[in-house]
Description:
Layout: E1 5-11, E2 14-20, H1 22-34, H2 39-49, H3 56-71
Antiparallel strand pairs: 1-2
Helix pairs in contact: 1-3
Amino acid sequence: MSDLVKRSLSLSGHRTSVALEPEFWTVLDAMAALRQQSFASLVASLDAARPPERPLASALRVAALIHLQKDHRPGN
């Protein structure tokens, strides 16, 4: 299993950091590029949409998985 990679960013005016496996960062970077938005903007939108009881790291992992599942549905 890969070591976690930590990234720091500002969300709602507050600095925070998130540690994820490099594979998740790769998918999230691709999502931002596909949506033609900055990485920080992508994370901010995912943060705003997550249920309050779900940690940010978990929300980012789930978003990456959902993104990959959409790419592998029949007809895509």
